[in-house]
Structure formats: structure tokens, C-alpha cells
């Protein structure tokens, strides 16, 4: 029996939907799935975790003044992994995961592969993109414990109902002497869905012409329950913040639907969104690279077409 650990990300006490694809990827025959949940009401998330195959829920308790310290969180999970004999660890390649997973791997002296879109646990192989998304690399890792960071939305969630058992793990005595948490600054509260987690992303490039016109995309994204992204050109022009940038030097995304509006489609941008399920390009330039690298292309002015689409969505 192989023990597999999964680090669960929460948002205000609720499980983020992107966890379920990762759990689906981690499921393997003749294995126990341990979900590590930090400082949350595990009874509130138990039903969701059971529906995707989690057999053990590890309730990790930290001291109240250490809960936001990433060094403490990483050490607590690493100690739990050792305690329960975990052989493979999965986390998400989100902003949180990119901070936490390397710390955990360092604590365990374990190999780490980030931004995986699939994993073969039987052979300890992970696949991730390389060279601006031009190719993919299969990376074989060895060791008693291996750690994988999974790209959000890379795997379609599939349910697998089981019964689970809650395990209490006390991490309240863990402290960090070399890392002090000072405060947590609130981000942009107007952003309801992050790029990494969105099922639908509508992004703008030079064709938006200015920052004010990104409100057109925001209105449409709200109707689609999606997020708004941008190309590097739009960010470098100062129209939108860097946090909205999609691409090799921005956020790598894998939504079900990606709509590129007035985006030329450079190699760097395409590398960050090429794993999207469906790509739609809207541009007045039929020779734009993204118009050739998409599933559907629309030769039109986004400033005219997107408001029209929004009106249709509003009218049902």
C-alpha cells in the first residue's frame, strides 16, 4: 500500500475547485490518499474530499501566531509526511504552492518537479513544458519521497467516492527562528477569480488600445464567471497591473476556455496558455500568430464584438 500526500488549498475555509483535478491525478491503485488540511474545520470539507477519493484527512493544527508563517507551515507538513510514511506529495503550482512546495522538498531533502501537467507515479515520472512551451519534458525522480507541483486545471476532476478517517496532527510547538511573519497585505479585492484557477479567461492585448477599455473585458468576464488577463504588451504599456499578465514571464494558465482579444500571440504568451482546453482568438489582423494557433478565430474589432457578446449574455 502506497501512501500519497496531497496539500489542500482553501479559500475562506472552503476547498478551491482546482484541488479536485490534482486529487484525480494523484489517485493510484492500492494506495491511501492523505489530504493535509491546515487550520480549518475538517468536518466542513470532509464530504468533498471523500467524494474524490481521500481516505485520510490530516487535520494539522498550528499555534495561532504561526499560522501565516510559510516556514512553519512547510515544516508542519514535512513532519506529517514523515509521520505517516508518505512516499509521494502533491501540491498546486499556484502562488501559495510555489512558496510552500520548495520549502517542503528542502525539509525532506526530496526531489521536486513544479508545473506538472501529468504524473506517472508507478515510474516516478512527471511531464512539464520546456523551451517556452515548444516541447515537453519527462522528468524521472528518485528517492524515498518525491514532490510534485501540479498546474491548476491541467487535469479534469473525476469523482471517486470513499469513506475517510480524520487524523489529528499537532504542529502547535513548531516555530521558525529564521523567518518572521510580519503582516498580510490585502490584494485587489475586486478580483473574484484568480487567473490560475479560472475556467474561463478573457485576455486583452494591444488591440484594447488603452487601459480603460479593459472594463469591456471585465464586464464580459463577469457574465462568463471568468477572469481577465493581459498580454505583456498591455502590461508594459501600463494599462493593467503585472498580476494580470499571462505568459512565460507571467501566469501560466490552463482554463477550459481562453479568449485572446487583440493579442498578437507571441511565443512567450502562447507558452503560458497553450494548454487551455479551447482557444478563441479575436483580432482585426488575420496574420496575427494567435489567429493560427487557436481552435476558433474571429476577424473582428474586439471593442465592437465583446460588448455585443456581453449584451447577448445579459439577455440570456
Give a brief outline of the structure.
By secondary structure, the chain is α/β, with parallel strands linked by helices. It is built from nine helices and 17 strands.
Give your account of this protein's structure.
This protein has 9 helices and 17 strands. It folds into 2 domains: 2-171, 3-Layer(aba) Sandwich (Rossmann fold); 195-314, Rossmann fold, CATH 3.40.50.1220. Helix 3 (70-83) packs across helix 4 (95-108) and helix 5 packs parallel to helix 9. It has a 7-stranded parallel sheet with strand order 7-11-6-1-4-5-12, sandwiched between helices. The protein has a 5-stranded parallel sheet with strand order 14-13-15-16-17. Strands 8-9-10 form a 3-stranded antiparallel sheet, with no helix packed on it. The model has no long low-confidence stretch (mean pLDDT 92). The chain is 27% helix and 27% strand. The longest helix is centred in the N-terminal third of the chain and has 14 residues, at 70-83. It is elongated. It has helices spanning 18-26, 42-51, 70-83, 95-108, 214-223, 232-236, 267-273, 289-292, 302-314, and strands at residues 2-7, 10-11, 14-15, 31-38, 56-62, 88-92, 112-116, 118-120, 125-130, 135-140, 146-150, 165-171, 200-204, 227-230, 257-261, 278-283, 296-299.
Amino acid at each position: 500500500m502506497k501512501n500519497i500526500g496531497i496539500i489542500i488549498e482553501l479559500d475562506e475555509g472552503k476547498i478551491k475547485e482546482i484541488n479536485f483535478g490534482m486529487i484525480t491525478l494523484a489517485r493510484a491503485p492500492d494506495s491511501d490518499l492523505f489530504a493535509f488540511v491546515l487550520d480549518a474545520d475538517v468536518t466542513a470539507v470532509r464530504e468533498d474530499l471523500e467524494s474524490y477519493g481521500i481516505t485520510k484527512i490530516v487535520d494539522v493544527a498550528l499555534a495561532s501566531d504561526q499560522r501565516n508563517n510559510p516556514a512553519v507551515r512547510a515544516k508542519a507538513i514535512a513532519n506529517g509526511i514523515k509521520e505517516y510514511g508518505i512516499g509521494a506529495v502533491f501540491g498546486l503550482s499556484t502562488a501559495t504552492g510555489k512558496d510552500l512546495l520548495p520549502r517542503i522538498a528542502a525539509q525532506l531533502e526530496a526531489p521536486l518537479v513544479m508545473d506538472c501537467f501529468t504524473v506517472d507515479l508507478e515510474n516516478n515520472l512527471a511531464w512539464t513544458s520546456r523551451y517556452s512551451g515548444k516541447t515537453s519534458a519527462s522528468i524521472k525522480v528518485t528517492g524515498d519521497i518525491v514532490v510534485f507541483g501540479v498546474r491548476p486545471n491541467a487535469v479534469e476532476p473525476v469523482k471517486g467516492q470513499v469513506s475517510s478517517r480524520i487524523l489529528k496532527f499537532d504542529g502547535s510547538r513548531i516555530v521558525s527562528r529564521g523567518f518572521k511573519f510580519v503582516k498580510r497585505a490585502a490584494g485587489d479585492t475586486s478580483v473574484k477569480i484568480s487567473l490560475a484557477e479560472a475556467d474561463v479567461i478573457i485576455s486583452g492585448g494591444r488591440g484594447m488600445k488603452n487601459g480603460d477599455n479593459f472594463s469591456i473585458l471585465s464586464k464580459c468576464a463577469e457574465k462568463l464567471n471568468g477572469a481577465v488577463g493581459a498580454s505583456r504588451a498591455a502590461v508594459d504599456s501600463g494599462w493593467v497591473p503585472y498580476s494580470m499578465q499571462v505568459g512565460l514571464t507571467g501566469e501560466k494558465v490552463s482554463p477550459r476556455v481562453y479568449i485572446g482579444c487583440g493579442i498578437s500571440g507571441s511565443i512567450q504568451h502562447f507558452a503560458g496558455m497553450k494548454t487551455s482546453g479551447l482557444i478563441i482568438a479575436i483580432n482585426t489582423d488575420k496574420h496575427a500568430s494567435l489567429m493560427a494557433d487557436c481552435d476558433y478565430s474571429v476577424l473582428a474589432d474586439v471593442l465592437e464584438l465583446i460588448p455585443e457578446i456581453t449584451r447577448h449574455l445579459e439577455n440570456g
